[in-house]
Known about the structure:
159 residues, mainly beta, CATH 2.40.50.140, five-stranded mixed barrel, 7 strands, 44% strand, extended, DNA repair, DNA replication, DNA damage
Amino acid sequence: MLNRVVLIGRLTKDPELRYTPSGVAVTQFTLAVDRPFTNGGQREADFIPIVSWRQLAETCANYLRKGRLTAVEGRIQVRNYENNEGRRVYVTEVIADNVRFLESQNSGNSARRDDAPPQGRYGGGYSGEGYGSSVGNNQDDPFQDDGKPIDISDDDLPF
């Protein structure tokens, strides 16, 4: 079974940082993601709620700002609760494991803080094994170009 999602979009507002009663940081923000088609020439977008935890939550709160182009990798979670009227409410959101800031701090596309980090990958929102707080660490990126030639024989190609 697999539950992975990768989104690229722009923040609709600044992230909201809160802390649980036990002191764990949690950040919520919404990512506007364009749909791959137009409706009468107009682009449509989906507004996806994103949740990040712990160190990743604090990093997102410190450096993400409204309008900033961002990539989020994580998993979809559906939770439910009973509201004040006794009705069951379902919430679907993406729990972020990794966040990439896709614009440099000097691009004039959106308002951001002067101390924003350079473009990069920020992870650590998931507490399971194999995921850690790897702020600025791209060593586990299988698509990273290390400058070395790739030796592939014709037998390795599927076509």
